[in-house]
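Subject: design request, 124 residues
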């Protein structure tokens, strides 16, 4: 199956708030270094991702001004892809959250799969 992998987060405010080391995805764009193995796993299973982040522990939120954990996440475009990705990832990680989120960049609705569990980023 040929899949185009688009993992470019157009939300510049999000990109600026969580600056992580970037690596070449091998698909013509860069991604957070720690999330690449997870993305490769999803891509091998035909799941197209839209945006991703490796998350942070105990960061200071720019609005709330309090430390909190920011979960690692991946976003996909369709409910079908979201449920398929969730089923794949749930085999390895028990602390998963699947949510529908309206896209701030107006392209479409998207589905976010996130976790604070360190096993989430260890999936490959």
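Subject: RE: design request

Done. Sequence follows.
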């Amino acid at each position: 199956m040929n899949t185009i992998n688009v993992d470019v987060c157009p939300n510049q405010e999000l990109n600026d708030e969580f600056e992580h080391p970037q690596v070449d995805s091998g698909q013509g764009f860069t991604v957070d270094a720690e999330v690449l193995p997870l993305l490769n796993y999803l891509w091998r299973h035909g799941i197209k991702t839209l945006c991703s982040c490796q998350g942070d522990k105990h960061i200071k939120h720019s609005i709330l001004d309090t430390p909190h954990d920011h979960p690692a996440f991946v976003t996909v475009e369709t409910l079908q892809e979201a449920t398929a990705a969730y089923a794949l990832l749930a085999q390895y990680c028990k602390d998963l959250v699947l949510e529908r989120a309206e896209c701030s960049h107006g392209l479409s609705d998207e589905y976010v799969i996130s976790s604070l569990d360190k096993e989430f980023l260890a999936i490959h």
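Residues 96 and 111 are 13 Å apart (CA to CA).
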